[in-house]
Design a protein that fits this description.
single chain; mainly alpha; two-stranded antiparallel sheet; 4 strands; globular
Length: 566
């Protein structure tokens, strides 16, 4: 078997091997069952609650959960803006990096608070160490918010009638201390022992093989990269992200970082099964997500390993596949594998230049973000899938002539209206943003010439990718786009805000409303939602919504580019 393919299989095997027991552990954390880490973290949790003046035992309604989430995010945004616009004179700036402009600080603050980590700056030159540490903190707590809000929805899905759904602050703190922190510590140790820097020293001076002196940026990189991957954040310490050997030194660290991308999103599916005592439902959801994931992964890997037909015509050997924009130490297959992992989740990290990928991989990476629920980000990935479950239940109910029900609760007009608004929001943000950018560029290409390094089909893909990445809270980019401008900073910042919080508010509202309804025990006429038939129905709903919404835009970009190369 080709060693590159074997590496892909081993990587995913490791994910599944760890995700199942991790999901059981997360289920215990959500259910407040005893775990072996309680002795360590119970005292730490109490300190946080005491400092915050929070009683973790006070139950909250779904509306109070949302108020708590939005309130603390506003506070974090203000703190982030203050730090990023004043880095030049604040401490921990040994390399004397400048402060950010207002529009760039707005984009960066929104990006990291919303778990997007879109970067319109180069990390090692655009931030002080204090700025990096602040963003590292947001990577923990934005991921913690996603996990906590997933826990709220899990509680709402239980087979009972309830007005309250636990305590948001308690779920949030437990997600950070008991899930993210231990995993990040282990990953950071592995990275540090493999050569990733972990220091507060400034730039180091090294002598290259040519005998030239070169300054190499250092910093607390290992810790930053660990939570960047595990929290589906994706923002790199360095500009090239995990294509930089300082962030990702070798094939072992590449596997570790790849596993970290989708470990928690998959584990949360099994945590759902544990909390609800419905393992079959969890496996059904996992099966649908994995089917979609494989349909994106396989074409991407095949395309990158076969190379570019244009380069073939030039008589250049592509024995290693399409290697433009890729690292030799990883190869084409592992780069395509990472590109799929990072875009089916809301991670956004890269170990190769997505702008240099073949058109087919451009299609699959865009589709992964456009669909945005094949695993998805920590917590919010399931929330996006939950919307499609509601749509699937409603459609199947109409097909059999019964009132739609999900886990013993009737799906009525109010829930459907919310679900449809959230399902349509994602295409609206992506397509409207891309249309506006295309109009500006087409109307005055000379004024906006700095935007696109590759005009034409690929240039359209670059703009489409930027808004897709922003709306999917992903953060990766076709880096041929000149995006550090007021337009891109503000436009994508607004998209990230809307795309983060409205898709959280919608599913939580639906789950909260359903939780207050009378529970109806299953009968012979009840639609079973833990079967392969229902799973395929949900998959069809996802496919139809994505195809109808995004196919025209894809034909103008990567699909047109694919046929132009033929």
């Amino acid at each position: 078997m080709n060693s590159e393919i074997l590496g892909i299989i081993v990587t995913y095997g490791l994910v599944l091997l760890m995700a199942i027991p991790l999901g059981r552990y997360i289920g215990k954390v959500f259910s407040y069952e005893g775990t072996w880490l309680d002795k360590i973290f119970n005292p730490i949790d109490k300190i946080f609650f005491k400092i915050g003046g929070i009683n973790p035992n006070v139950e909250m309604t779904w509306k109070k959960h949302l108020v708590a989430l939005l309130s603390i995010n506003v506070v974090w945004f203000i703190i982030s803006m203050l730090v990023l616009t004043n880095m030049a004179w604040l401490p921990l700036n040994p390399d004397q990096n400048p402060s950010m402009t207002g529009d760039l600080a707005f984009n960066t603050s929104v990006s990291f608070i919303t778990n997007t980590n879109l970067q319109h700056y180069s990390g090692e030159t655009g931030l002080s160490y204090l700025g990096q540490l602040v963003l590292m903190l947001w990577q923990f707590i934005s991921a913690g918010c996603g996990i906590a809000i997933a826990a709220v929805v899990f509680m709402a899905m239980k087979e009972k009638t309830s007005l309250t759904l636990g305590n948001f602050y308690s779920f949030f703190v437990r997600a950070c201390t008991r899930i993210l922190l231990p995993l990040a510590f282990v990953v950071a140790i592995i990275l540090a022992f493999n050569g990733t820097p972990m220091t507060f020293e400034g730039k180091d001076t090294v002598t290259t093989l040519e005998g030239q002196q070169q300054n190499v940026s250092r910093g607390p990189v290992a810790a930053f990269v660990a939570i960047k991957q595990l929290g589906t954040n994706g923002g790199g310490f360095y500009g090239p992200n995990s294509a930089n050997p300082m962030e990702n030194p070798n094939y072992l660290t590449n596997i570790v970082e790849s596993v970290s991308i989708i470990l928690i999103p998959i584990a949360l599916i099994f945590a759902l099964g544990y909390v609800l005592k419905r393992k079959k439902l969890a496996w059904t959801i996992y099966g649908v997500m994995t089917l979609g994931f494989l349909m994106l992964l396989i074409p991407s890997v095949v395309s990158e390993m076969h190379g570019s037909p244009t380069i073939d015509k030039m008589g250049i050997s592509q024995a290693m596949g399409s290697m433009e924009g890729k690292e030799v130490r990883f190869g084409s297959a592992a780069s395509a594998n990472w590109a799929t992992y990072t875009t089916v989740t809301s991670n956004g990290s890269v170990n190769a230049m997505h702008d240099s990928m073949t058109p087919m991989t451009g299609v699959t990476t865009l589709l992964g973000m456009m669909i945005n629920c094949f695993y998805g980000g920590v917590g919010v990935g399931f929330l996006n899938f939950y919307i499609f479950i509601i749509l699937g239940v409603f459609i199947s109910g109409l097909m059999v002539g019964r009132t739609p029900e999900f886990l013993g609760k009737k799906i009525e007009a109010k829930e459907m209206k919310i679900a449809m608004m959230i399902a349509l929001l994602h295409p609206l943000l992506i397509l409207a943003g891309t249309a506006l950018a295309s109009h500006l560029y087409a109307g005055n290409p000379e004024a906006y010439s700095g935007w696109l390094a590759n005009p034409g089909y690929h240039g359209f893909s670059e703009m489409l990718y930027e808004f897709t990445s922003s709306s999917a809270n992903n953060g990766s980019g076709f880096e041929g786009l000149g995006d550090n401008t007021p337009f891109w900073n503000i436009a994508t910042g607004i998209v990230m805000l809307l795309a983060r919080y409205l898709p959280i508010i919608g599913p939580v509202a639906i789950a909260g409303i359903l939780a207050t309804k009378q529970y109806i025990p299953e009968s012979n006429g009840t639609l079973k939602t833990d079967t392969s038939t229902f799973g395929l129905l949900v998959f069809a709903v996802i496919f139809i919504v994505a195809a109808l919404s995004f196919f025209p835009a894809l034909t103008l970009g990567p699909i047109a580019e694919f046929f132009s190369l033929k």
